[in-house]
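FAQ

Q: What does a record look like?
A: Structure on top, sequence underneath. For example:
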């Protein structure tokens, strides 16, 4: 059976998922921290560079400037406990709401009057986001982005390429988290080190909210009680396996498809700047953990927001594909 280059990449991706699963099962916290600090900034920087050449999948290039400003404001809100800026409650949810729904306008609407009117409506209605605070502020920029949107991106790619291993790779993406929860559910192979526990403190808001609102873990009176659940309990370890897998494979999926996406095919000067910024990011993270983490959080938010139009494009493409299939079936 002759394999196309795309099919070979799909097979490699299935292998990368299995490797990510195995490491996430044994060293979930350490894998996440490594992936976030080392693979993360390289992914963020190369994807932003690639999106720039794709005009961010929007009708107008200045749309990206709006998303960049929103990313900066969300980052400032994220660190508002360290800076003297009094942001309104839920300000970050409002911004994420505008960025996500605004991306639909950026992708589908060309008329400037309709675009301005649509954004104005989103700004005026953004208080609605307060009813879905956890979705917009906690889960959208983290697990939904790295897992759900990655799965959609894979499905869209499989539909376009018609690779024989495209859909199986998407199925593997669905099955891996299930395996992480059902295989050795009560065994922590290597408990997190003291460094890992301290380094993960900024991220545990995701774990806490998922455990409370998705898995139904009761509210704990103090943070030390949450630390025991997150880092020592079976519920916490199983969740961390999923988080580590989702983030790691999100990055690996991007790098494995270099030949298809061609994110490296950019002007040499820009590519050199990207590599330099990546090395600076990693060096900053190693030498000054606090400052490095702030920089990585900004890059992370920025790439999440700039990817929204691509996510919208993928969803529209998937919808058009299945609509076409249904139309053909009805016609037949």
């Amino acid at each position: 059976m002759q394999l196309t280059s795309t099919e070979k990449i799909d097979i490699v991706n299935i292998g990368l998922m299995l490797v990510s699963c195995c490491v996430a099962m044994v060293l979930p916290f350490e894998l996440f921290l490594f992936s976030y600090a080392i693979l993360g900034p390289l992914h963020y920087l190369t994807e932003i560079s690639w999106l720039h050449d794709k005009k961010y999948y929007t009708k107008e290039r200045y749309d990206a400037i709006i998303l960049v400003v929103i990313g900066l404001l969300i980052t400032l809100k994220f660190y508002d406990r360290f800076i003297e800026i009094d942001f309104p409650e839920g300000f970050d949810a409002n911004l994420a709401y505008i960025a996500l729904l605004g991306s639909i306008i950026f992708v589908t609407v060309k008329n400037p009057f309709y675009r301005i009117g649509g954004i104005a409506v989103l700004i005026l209605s953004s208080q609605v986001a307060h009813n879905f605070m956890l979705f917009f502020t906690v889960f959208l920029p983290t697990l939904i982005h790295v897992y759900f949107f990655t799965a959609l991106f894979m499905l869209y790619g499989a539909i376009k390429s018609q690779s024989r291993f495209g859909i199986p790779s998407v199925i593997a993406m669905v099955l891996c988290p299930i395996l992480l929860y059902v295989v050795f559910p009560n065994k922590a192979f290597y408990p997190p080190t003291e460094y890992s526990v301290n380094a993960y403190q900024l991220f545990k808001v995701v774990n806490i909210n998922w455990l409370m609102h998705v898995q139904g873990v009761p509210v704990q009176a103090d943070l030390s009680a949450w630390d025991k659940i997150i880092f020592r309990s079976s519920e916490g370890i199983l969740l961390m396996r999923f988080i580590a897998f989702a983030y790691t494979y999100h990055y690996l999926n991007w790098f494995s498809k270099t030949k298809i996406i061609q994110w490296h095919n950019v002007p040499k000067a820009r590519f050199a700047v990207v590599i330099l910024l990546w090395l600076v990011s990693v060096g900053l993270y190693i030498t000054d953990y606090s400052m490095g983490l702030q920089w990585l959080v900004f890059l992370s938010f920025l790439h999440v927001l700039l990817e929204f139009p691509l996510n919208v494009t993928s969803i529209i493409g998937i919808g058009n594909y299945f609509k076409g299939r249904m139309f053909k079936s009805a016609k037949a």
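Q: Is there anything notable about this one?
A: The chain is about 80% helix and 0% strand.
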